[in-house]
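Exercise 7.
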Amino acid sequence: MTGVTDVLVVAPHPDDDVIGCGGSIAKHVRDGARVTVVIVIGRERSALDDAVTDAEFAAETEAAAKALGVHRCIRFDEPSRDFTLSRHVHLNLVRVLREVRPQVVYLPHDNDDDVEHRMVHQLTTEALWMAQSEFFQEAGDQPMPAPRLVLGYEVWAPMARFQYAEDIDGQIGTKVEAMRAYVSQLRHAAWDEAIRGLARYRSAVSTGTGHAEVFQVLGLRTPPPGGGPGGVHD
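Solution. The predicted structure, written as tokens, is:
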């Protein structure tokens, strides 16, 4: 991961980026990279948080991004449960990719239990190809170079197999702080404790450092020197 200046994280919903790769985001920021987060789908209201206004929920998203050190958070606000893989949303993501020109891209892994997570996986995979092609000039006329690394993260369904593990022991506190910014979501479940527990388990079976995040390797242009921080595990 040396020499990374720009990172793009594509999240289906608010807080998925924190759960899936919040520690890695904080680590990229620590190392001087600019991290852009795209949240594709807007808020889904629940009876548990119906009293929370849209402005208050947006403030939670901003507070979580600030805790992680995110450079920019872009919200597409696509409709939840009516989300479709339209040309419009593809071009919006291509436009961001061509602007950011990331060396590292994070997206949901390909077999997550949530259907919208799988749809955003497909969206991002297709948009990556589109952004590198000579077509789709309406989304910017300069094709982006291929990212060095494309990683799939876990949210609803922990991966049965993974290829990359990142030591986030130094960032677990920041990740939990960012999750706790989503006060409304903690009314649904103790996500702050869940992500800490999963990170401890992932470390036990991979890095052995205390806390880790694991990823599906979806694209690798140039292997990171020495296997990269945390090494590669399977």
